[in-house]
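re the bet — no i am not wrong, look at it urself. input seq straight from the record:
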Amino acid sequence: MHRRGNVSYGPNKNEPLDRASVWIEQEIAIAAYILRTAKNDLLTAAYIEKGVALEGLRVLLNLNPMEFTTNDQIITDLKTRLNTWHNSSERDSFGELQLEVFPGNEGGVQVKKLSPILTCKGSRANEYSCTLEIPEPLLSFNTAFNMLEVKRRHAGYRRFQATEMTKQNQPLVRDNPVKMLTQDVAIVHLTNEQKEQVLGQNVLVFADIGDHTYSLTKSCTEIFAEMQRAQKDEIEGPDTRFGYFHFKNKPENPLCPRCYQSIPQKVVYMGPRDQRAGGIMRFCPVCNFTVTEVIAPDVNRQTDHNPLTYGLGIK
């Protein structure tokens, strides 16, 4: 961004500033769009002449441009940067990186299981690695320690890494896909505001097979699209008998009514029917909400199945 001219703002034209070319604003906007929507990395280097003011999209984007006074400073810095850049994509003739996403249930919480998969297409590789970067809110439902977690690189993202050492130094064999790691993520435990924010973020995956570098990006909206549709269109209830909710295609698997109607909303399956002294019961594995579906013949007591009053002392 070279200085192109001086303009003045304000009613009395007493707010002058030095402006760069208006074309650079369009180039930056296009670059930002590609980076946001494309599946590959877009490596950029920004330079700004000393004294040029912030305008347009540059006010909103964190470009961290290098300030210069002579063109020689740009050339020197760019040569250094280019030596560290590597073109990156999901696949080439030597290998391929994929991200497998499939549903699961952990501790009664509906999750998506993310598994990066590496495939070597050339000769066997003895050195390889894979890094998964996930928006932090998607992991807040689980406080367990993960041995594969490494130092963060981006604020708001947690980072997990697997290498040939974590795979017992087993080589990547030609055309033999290897699942590098699996990480559970969830969205049902978040508030609506948190959901809206995290659905605008991406999961980032990076990998190396020998000297070859790969990367891919998958949006959280895409990862949780099926779950979002399911919660909106495929859940019925509450039933009049026990107050259960359920997926239309799984009427025999009730959802916890307390979790489903709580804030933030959680979609949690009730546990299996359990024979106890008081009768046949189900327990929620998350909030421990209890429903007695069949009262034992020798038990004479009332059971409140109303999820709105249970445990609140309201009759």
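see?? Residues 310-315 have pLDDT under 50 and may be disordered. told u. also The first strand starts at residue 5 and ends at 9. so pay up
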